[in-house]
Amino acid sequence: xxxxxxxxxxxxxxxxxxxxxxxxxxxxxxxxxxxxxxxxxxxxxxxxxxxxxxxxxxxxxxxxxxxxxxxxxxxxxxxxxxxxxxxxxxxxxxxxxxxxxxxxxxxxxxxxxxxxxxxxxxxxxxxxxxxxxxxxxxxxxxxxxxxxxxxxxxxxxxxxxxxxxxxxxxxxxxxxxxxxxxxxxxxxxxxxxxxxxxxxxxxxxxxxxxxxxxxxxxxxxxxxxxxxxxxxxxxxxxxxxxxxxxxxxxxxxxxxxxxxxxxxxxxxxxxxxxxxxxxxxxxxxxxxxxxxxxxxxxxxxxxxxxxxxxxxxxxxxxxxxxxxxxxxxxxxxxxxxxxxxxxxxxxxxxxxxxxxxxxxxxxxxxxxxxxxxxxxxxxxxxxxxxxxxxxxxxxxxxxxxxxxxxxxxxxxxxxxxxxxxxxxxxxxxxxxxxxx
Length: 436
Known about the structure:
Layout: E1 8-11, H1 13-16, H2 33-44, E2 48-51, E3 55-57, E4 64-70, H3 77-89, E5 93-98, E6 102-104, H4 108-116, E7 128-129, E8 141-142, E9 144-145, E10 148-153, H5 159-176, E11 180-183, H6 191-204, E12 209-212, E13 230-231, H7 234-246, H8 250-260, E14 274-275, H9 285-288, H10 295-304, E15 308-312, H11 327-330, H12 341-355, H13 358-361, E16 363-369, E17 373-380, E18 383-390, E19 396-398, E20 407-410, E21 417-420, E22 424-426, E23 430-435
Parallel strand pairs: 1-2, 1-15, 2-5, 5-11, 11-12, 12-13, 14-15
Antiparallel strand pairs: 3-4, 6-10, 7-8, 9-10, 16-17, 17-18, 18-23, 19-22, 20-21
Helix pairs in contact: 5-6, 7-8, 10-12
């Protein structure tokens, strides 16, 4: 599967392109701005772009009005087709946000229900009680997503609804040649619909990629041979920043062993979760870490642990934003990319990832775990990659054994020579990646 071998990059188009929060109905060709960022994506070694919602919606994109039309604030379908063509020319895959659990109050079918009530042909597209009332005083009750009544829950047990959604996806493949979907709130999307989506999209494209949003629980519920290929690894997202802030690498290493270790009971060995250190829903990494020098180390862990690494736009140069400031603060517009030491460091990590299949498909084994230091091994077909990290500001020694290795090693990040003698000496605030 192509997705297991690529570095992903996430845009939140409404924010990135500077669209107004409310849908003002004014056509602006803002989505073309993505084309200006393609040289940046190429320079960084990005192999796939994941676009958060781009279809016509009431406000932030997750309250869809029309699944078959690019949001007027972003441009036209032809504009986005041009964006996809330019990305594909550079070998960059395109993944869209599949928001299939719910729609906005401005969705054409729901507006028809509000107008015609029991006589609407769309009344069974939603979970409605005409004898109740809503927070909006509609004179009817309907199910909203987790109590949010601006997000109207779709009835995915209705074949007419699922037919409409599948045909919408077919249109995206036909018109934009998309390569995959990230499924919003996949943890609560009807499982039979997920199975049908997997089958139908596999017929559209043999390697069509499906990744499901999972906040917690067992990712295998939706990540399996019948549903999604991948799921968002929130456990390790939390484990990375929490381990660094508390100087307790046992936390992230416990999660990695639990998920990918050699024992038969581990949960996701051989599977490919979507890895990230921040995204459009959480505080930026640079705002959540208490030690600025830990930022590159978080990325070093993310790029070398099992999974598909994904970068959230702007975080590669250390942009700061706290969730407490509200979601719009997490999703700003940028006129152009910035280049600094962090950008260059992450670019180097992506280069290493793109060249080392052991990081795509390799097994995982812990070599050493301490509070402020750890090391682990990835291995595939005799090719071995070792990652070691020191969170401490001072030098530290890591003691571990690697079969057949003794003498000098070369750090793939910097090219520095490191002596290996039943372990290594590490400088403070440092990560090493070795091929052994």
